[in-house]
Amino acid sequence: MTPSGAEFVRQVKGQVDEVDPTQVHEVLWDPDVAIIDVRESDEVSAGKLPGAVHVPRGFLESRIDGAVGDRAKRVVLYCASGNRSALAARTLKEDLGYDRVESMTGGYTLWKDRGYEVDVPRTLTPEQRERYSRHILIDEVGLDGQIKLIDAKVLLIGAGALGSPNALYLAAAGVGTIGIVDDDVVDLSNLQRQVVHGTSTIGVPKVESAAKRINDLNPEVNVVQHQQRLESSTVLDLFRDYDVIVDGTDNFPTRYLINDAAVRLGKPVVSAAILGFEAQLSVFDTANDGPCYRCLFPTPPPAELAPSCGANGVLGVLPGTAGLLQATEVIKLIIGKGDSLRGRLLMYDALAAEMREVKVRRDPECPVCSRDPATISDDEMGVFPDYEAFCAAAG
Amino acid sequence: MATIRIPPVLRPAVGGERTVSADGSTVREVLDSLVGAHGELQSQLFGADGDLNRFVNVYLNDEDVRVLEGLDTGVGEADTLVILPAMAGGAPRP
User: Fold this and answer.
1) Is there a common fold for A5-113 and A152-394?
2) What CATH class has A152-394?
């Protein structure tokens, strides 16, 4: 008479070697032991043994070679309670010739009851899957890249013309934390280009106005409002909490301050500058052997040769283009894909519809990044030769 | 004649042109003839010591002439010199 299903499982469990979770815990990180999770994907997504490889029982025969190539290796299988893993163990031993196969008694349930550590893989909520579906569909981002974006912290220096497109698109992309440094309020003359703000927020602090718009676009983004000027006394504490710094300022003292603090902390800076119809962009990433802003420009031009867009005009769409190229670089840095603008300066001439690039070399004698970052003092940050005269002339 | 790309801040000094041509077989010669035709550029490009100002970079095609042979770097007919002064424009100072 053929046995019932339950009887068959009992028989198989009598034929295979079983091992208690306590013994498995002792060999958890042992490279000579392969731990295989034979459950279904939805069960694994709720948690698994650390370091275990997932080979669902339905794909056991076709995938086990990829997971354990050496048939002499000790293999421990587990499922939820110890039944499916016993059946799988029998297959590996009897049919596929694995020598040392064991099934863990009580499975993942007993392992957890014993209080042993588990790995809960990061997943997205159904709403996140839908919101970010077009990211998840491209290989270069995918689920892993989207999780990196959600975990990322980006600091925008300035919620103005360049900060606006960065704020909007980084928020839309799902960057989890966006800090914004700006002490200004929204003015009617800003709205020709500073599209994160609106007519309804004229007179409102820019950080608040931007936070409101960002959270309307993506309520999951944690917007940290730093309503302040960037000062050398606070810049290090501010930068420390972020992964990427976005420089969209309009003046040299702030650019040098951002550079020096970022070099000191080893944080990448995605930098853009705009004037008239022209934009310049680069990524300064000294932690990855890239040059810094001072390698490119050791000193700023004298004030009379350094117009800023406060006093000079700028085509409203230009900071949109430049800011989105910045946001693109930020996302690439976060997900670790593509070739960044590190070591390159991109020039975009909107009137000519031309892009050019030049190489930016790391200066072996750079006053800042050629040194041990720990030796850069607070007093030096943001300072350059003739700093006092520059600032006096610039007003 | 080599082509020289003029950045926005210097365009008023060359009558608004984005590119100009100038004679010369080295960077120094090309820039000298540029300055000869547009005198205003002298103080923008060169310091009192006759060297390039540190806030201006000059590239032969895409390479900084400072990592080549500086002002003595050779320039061919088909080459482009890019003049790049530091530019700070963006949001008002936060």
Assistant:
1) no
2) alpha beta
For residue A314, list chain B residues with Cβ-Cβ distance below 8 A: 89
Sign of CA dihedral A98, A101, A107, A111: negative
Q: How confident is the prediction along chain B (94 residues), in pLDDT tens digits per residue?
A: 899 999 888 888 999 899 999 999 999 999 999 999 999 899 889 988 889 998 899 999 999 999 999 999 999 999 999 999 887 765 444 3
Report phi then psi at A388, rounded to 5. -60, -45
Whether the CB-CB separation of A294 and A369 falls below 8 Å is answered with yes
The answer to whether residues A191 and A178 touch, using CB atoms and an 8 Å cutoff, is no
What are the residue ranges spanned by the domains of chain A?
Answer: 5-113, 152-394
Strands (E), B1-94: 2-5, 19-22, 56-60, 63-64, 80-85
| Residue found under tokens 């302040």 | A228
Query: Which residue of A250, A296, A298 is in closest CB contact with B89?
Result: A250
Structure token digits, residue A55: 């080979």
Measuring CA to CA, how many Å separate A177 from each of A15, A167, A170, A215, A237? 54, 11, 10, 11, 16
Interface pTM (ipTM) of the complex?
0.90
Q: Nearest by CB to B90, which of A161, A230, A296?
A: A161
CATH 3.40.250.10 fits domain A5-113: yes
One-letter identity of residue B7:
P
CA A208 to chain centre: 24
pTM of the model: 0.80
The structural domains of chain B, with segments of one domain joined by +, span: 2-85
Query: Angle, nearest 10°, between helix axes A163-173 and A206-217?
Result: 30
* Fold (CATH) for B2-85: Ubiquitin-like (UB roll) (3.10.20)
Neighbours of B61 (CB within 10 A): 14
Residue type, A277: F
Name the minimum distance, in Å, from the CA of A27 to any CA of chain B.
Answer: 55
Kindly determine whether residue B92 and residue A347, on different chains, have CB atoms separated by under 8 Å: no
Residue numbers in B near A247 (CB within 8 A) = 90
